[in-house]
Write a structure and sequence with these properties.
Blueprint lengths: L10 E3 L7 H14 L9 E9 L4 E5 L12 H12 L5 E10 L12 H14 L4 E5 L5 E4 L18
Parallel strand pairs: 4-5
Antiparallel strand pairs: 1-6, 2-3, 2-4, 5-6
């Protein structure tokens, strides 16, 4: 038997003011998108902003449905829209922010497993890293340089072929 350890690295900032102008812009955009999320059941509101290589910013937020599995996360709303409207333009980065009605989120939120898999596939497809910028209501901001850092064992399309 052989033991293998995986390690992740990320940057952590105390304030949005410490970010470069580009990161600050997309994170502020994600924060604004929190306010128009449709989350009447969980009361957990998430906003996302995708920065494309052409400079366009595409936004999304979580959209719930009373039939819980029918809802969709903010990250996938933004990424799927970006891909449908700009299919040949690479995703440079994605910013994600959240707030809850009943409590403060005082740490950076992270994408769920389904969103990680979707982001990882786009990163794989475009053959370049997608930076992830994460923020809660309050607290620190994290920047992760690649989706592979938060999902190191991606399920690849090659695994469907024999």
């Amino acid at each position: 038997m052989k033991k293998i350890d995986l390690k992740i690295s990320f940057e952590e900032y105390d304030s949005i003011e410490e970010l470069n102008p580009e990161d600050k812009t997309i994170l502020n955009t994600a924060c604004k998108m929190v306010n128009t999320a449709y989350a009447p059941y969980s009361q957990y509101y998430v906003g996302a902003a995708v920065l494309l290589e052409n400079g366009k910013i595409i936004t999304g937020n979580n959209q719930e449905n009373v039939a819980y599995p029918s809802g969709i996360c903010a990250e996938r709303v933004a990424v799927f829209y970006a891909s449908s409207q700009y299919p040949d333009v690479k995703i440079k980065s994605i910013a994600v922010s959240a707030k809850a009605i009943n409590f403060k989120i005082n740490h950076p939120v992270t994408p769920c497993g389904a969103c990680r898999q979707v982001l990882a596939e786009y990163e794989d497809k475009q053959k370049s890293e997608i930076r992830i910028i994460l923020k809660g209501d309050t607290g620190k901001i994290r920047i992760i340089k690649s989706v592979k850092d938060i999902l190191p064992m991606i399920f690849h399309a090659d695994e469907l072929k024999k």
